[in-house]
Amino acid sequence: MDRRRFFATAGTAAGTLLHMKKSEAANAKEGKEFVGVLVDTTRCIGCRACEVACSVAWNNFVPDVKNDNALDHRRDTSDKQYTVVNRFKTEKGDVFVKRQCMHCWQAACVAMCLVNAMYKTKEGPVTWNGEKCLGCRFCMVACPFDIPKAEYLSWNPRIMKCHMCYERLQEGKKPACVEACPADALMFGQKRELMEIARHRVYSHPDKYVHQIYGEQEAGGTGWLYLSAVPFDQIGFRTDLGTTPYPEYTKQFLVSVPLVLFGVPALLLGLSELSDRKNEVRESEGWTETGADE
Amino acid sequence: MNTTAIGTSEFNRVASFIWQELKPRGKWLTPFNVISIPIILLGIGILYFRFVYGIGFVTNLNQYYPLGIWIGFDVVTGVALAGGAYVITFVVYVMRMEKYHSIVRVTVLNGLLAYIFYAGALTLDLGRPWHIVNPIIGNSFGYNSVLFLVSWHFLLYMLTMALEFSPVVAEWAQLEKARKFLSGLTLGAVIFGITLSILHQSGLGALFLMAKPKIHPLWYSEFIPVMFVVSSIYAGLSMIIFEGTISHKVFRDLLAGQDHHRYEEIILGLGKGAAITMFVYYFFQALLFIHEERWELITDAWGYWYLLEVIGLVLIPCFMYAYAVRNRNLGILKVAAVLALLGIILNRLNVTVIAYRWYDVDKYYPSWQEIVVTLTVVFTEIWIFRWIVTRMPVFGKRR
User: Fold this and answer.
1) Mutation test of the interface with chain B: which of A82, A115, A158, choosing the one with the most B Cβ atoms within 10 A?
2) Which of A148, B100, B291, B320 has a Cα-to-Cα distance from A73 of 20 to 30 A?
């Protein structure tokens, strides 16, 4: 048993190393490709296996799926669960929607963070680093999807949010929720491929899907993409977020900072010279002298 | 060896002097002490629970309202109200208007203490305050972050104001050489300080630019940073008038040497400045209102709330200031200052807390513990202010 475990560990480690080398080479050759997940809400059966798998993988609160009747009311991700599934009653029957971090292409939380604790990895997941975090919670202000959650009842609070199982991805595995999904509602891959698959499904079944892929453009594009049979505002999505990446909203300000930093002192020094009485007196003296010369 | 001996005796002199100065003076049973001491003690007790059991144990913050009055009032409003320091140093050291020289020291002291306490209140709100050095040292620079810039500007501005105030401390400690050297740095410090102030006053507004879907459209625009800077000018001026009025009552004996007529001229001048900047600010608000076609938004309760702020607490005090200056009416001037300050408090709280997630049913409101801690911060600052002005030559002559 021990020997077998040893071989398993060694194998995983070697595999990881090989994989890392390979992915680095791939990144260098093709440029970076962000990964994401395609959620097809028409396939989701609301079994909440993803919730359980996620919480088991990351040592969070594991819901009692069979007995807690959690689908009866709207829930949100919390400081105890990175992902939740909600049920929406629509004209096309019950629709189940999984919710978690969207892993924005240009994430507001990352742009807001002053210490890079929120970090967009080159693979695509947005991760959080507790060694750096100040706990200022401005990432929660910035996030248009209200995803980061703080542990308010802890002396050393963490910011809790889905990190697309970044550690598992590095081992070459899929995110825990994707692996657990029995209905094939979740598909992991590079966004470009996922977009093609999503478009293919919409085009080949135009009656089944609305003609929108949520996450293609929203907030500048997200890593997680959603397909739906009913308009997205009926299944708990905000459709007023716009297509501008959120960091763009602060760009104008950031560009003007160096201008102010160098322009204003120059202006103030000039003003100070102009208002100096000593200069005034000297000038008036000079004026009389030249006047006398004439 | 000789120099060492002198150094030691000098050190002993300064040490015993400071020890003497640390002792309390005056009556103990004043109304202010009777109110503030129990509140400060209670506040310290609450902070114990906050650091042991977490922020959520004493505040009403939740996952949708990550910022409460500790940020919205203490930090964002407090910094706006402390804008007087950069405005007055501009007027006196850059524009060289000597008329206002006598209020520079007290205004800079107020600014410095406000930053130390109100920006310092930030550490009470941070989940992991021991990481506060991360943006300053180490490899954790979030260069593209507005918050990163604001934190650096806060820090540098506090050092700048300390430098601006340092000649007073040197004079108090009777260190003549140091005083001369530090006085020589004032103009540079002032220019740097004004620049930093413009940047972080606007930066505090820029922090909320990414909260676009969460702030009511009457309070959100891409020009929040500009509005924050312009309003900080009249906020600072109004605060000087307000504080000056109280100081003239409380520290009457310290101000005995001052010409009362001259002081009147000063606050009337400040009122004039406030009236002009308020009108500019109101004009910007009106432009935004027309440009962003906000007509439909003012028909509901949020619209009336907005009108209360912009008409009732900007335009009306603006006219009151203008009237008071024209007729030399100090009573109306002081009322205008109070209204203008209320307008600033309301504006900052609207952006950060009240109109933030206006669509929610369960709104955030502060817990009693949050209010007590806020009062603790304010009262402690007043205690330190009182200690300094009764010992150092802030109002002019040394006591």
Assistant:
1) A115
2) A148
Separation of first and last alpha carbons in chain A: 110
Q: Is A271 on the interface with B (CB under 8 A)?
A: yes
Distances (CA, A) of B50 to B352, B369, B380: 22, 10, 18
Length of chain B: 399
Cα gap B123→B121, rounded to integer Å:
5
- Nearest residue in chain B measured CA to CA from A158: B127
Q: Does pTM top 0.90 for this prediction?
A: no
Domain residues for B307?
39-389
Number of structural domains found in chain B:
1
Give percent of chain B above pLDDT 90.
61
Determine, for residues B140 and A117 on separate chains, whether the beta-carbon distance falls below 8 Å: yes
Here the CATH number for the domain that contains residue B244 is: 1.20.1630.10
Question: Are A154 and B203 within 8 A, CB to CB?
Answer: no
Comparing CB atoms, the residue among A150, A156, A264 nearest residue B195 is A264
DSSP, residue by residue, B286-341: HHHHHHTT-GGGGGSHHHHHHHIIIIIIIIHHHHHHHHHHHHT-HHHHHHHHHHHH
C-alpha to C-alpha distance for A152 and A10, rounded to whole angstroms: 40
Confirm whether B269 is domain-assigned: yes
pLDDT tens-digit readout, A6-19: 555 555 555 444 44
